[in-house]
Amino acid sequence: TADLWSIYSKPVPANGRELWTLFLQSCCITAVIGGLFYNWMFVSLQYSWHLSIAMTISFSLLLLLTLFLVHPARCVFSMIMPMLGTKQGRKLLLSTCTMIVVVNITPNIISNIKTILQVIKCICKNSSESLLNSTALLGTASWEFGDAIQENVNSINFGSPMNGHFQFSLLKNSSFPYQQMQLAGEKIGKDFMAVEVLVKDSVRVGNKLVAGFSMLYLCFESTWYLKNYLTNLRFDNFYITRKLELLAVDRKAAHLLVGPSKNLIRPRGLKLSREEVMLCLVQAMLLTVALMLMLVVVAMDHFAFSVADTAVRKAAQFSVVPVTLSIKYKVSAGAKIGILPFLSKLLQIPSEELPLQDFERSYHYYLTFSSAHCSISPPTPPNPSVLLAVGLLFCILYTTVFLQTYAHRLCRKIAGSFFESWEEKRALYLYKKLSRRHKEE
């Protein structure tokens, strides 16, 4: 492994065997990265398969030539891998996680909301039709009640004949309310479809922009680090490296590296400085905010399913409601009716008692709120695999928060292995700096 890395990090291969080894290494790396790139383009960013293949082939050929021919580019590319464990890598994972949530959870929420609307539409349709059909019952009740009144009027036998029946108007066009509800349901469905398409398109475009920017920034950050490493001896130069230890031993100054020092860190150690710990905690807090937002969307998915499932079950139980219409008409017993009562008293004509009949009847009807003819799609339960994928991604994200310091140290080690002569100069600069500080103390 050390020999393969030595060949890979050399500026120029020493012989033909190293040249072929470097070419095979470049081919293997290109094949792996090309496969990951295609999966990222097609699955995560959801580009079409032919565009993903074309971009993957072009990217792979360019990467192969770059790795095989350009030594600094190999160093930059090698540092990109550890950089994935830093802030920009977390942005890529967050964009992937957001895409998984939007593509899988948002349609599920909208589907369950559509189920709830279908239940409401079914209840409104059946209840309106049932209410319209109940007008026939009201017509029958009014007619029988009118007969009773007519009999009482006829028993009086005074004046011109009267029709005691009620004129009850029935709504003949029972399809009109249903048509209005159908139009309203279609409009609501179109609005939901438009919102779903808008959310998907917006998140998809935003995810592509974030992913593209993050990849470009990864390349820029690695290039910027290498540029500063090669031009500034003070840049990221506070590690007790192997070359610094050998230099201190050769010059009999090993005491410079002994004892606790807040300014020196061993790159292979697990110790984190206070600044590194605070940075990790801040990044973890920001990541927790993103996790809370994801959990809100997941909770909305479970809530929408619970409401839809309850609505479907309750609608089936709340199918028929009995309704009773009671009419009670009572005439006071012993009522006296005569011709012009004041004349009857004046002329002393006796009034006759008329037998008037009471009316009391009950009419029963059943209001229907749902039926088996309603087309209601079953509620869609949340997909547990999506929640598992999101959980695993956030576990990786939290891991990268605390591994970003070691990833940064690995970047420095990679740069030192590609440019060993410059690493010796940096070790010498740090040794002189420690020597001056020791003499001043």
Structure characterization notes:
- The protein is mostly helical.
- It folds into two domains: 1-69, no CATH class; 70-159 and 173-331 and 355-440, no CATH class.
- Helices cover 71% and strands 5% of the residues.
- It is built from twelve helices and four strands.
- Strands 1-4 form a two-stranded antiparallel sheet. A two-stranded antiparallel sheet has the order 2-3.
- It starts with a helix and ends with a helix.
Biggest pleated-sheet summary: 2 strands, antiparallel
Q: Would you tell me the overall average pLDDT? A: 75
Helix share of residues?
over 70%
What's the number of helices? 12
Radius of gyration: 43 Å
The ordered H/E elements are: HHHHHHHHHEEHEEHH
SS elements, strand count = 4
Beta-strand content bin: 5-15%
Distance between the termini: 44 Å
Shape: elongated
Spatial sequence of strands, sheet with the most strands = 1-4
Transmembrane segments: 19-41, 47-71, 92-110, 277-300, 385-403
Pfam families: DC_STAMP
Membrane topology: Multi-pass membrane protein
InterPro entries: CSR-E3_Ligase_Protein, DC_STAMP-like
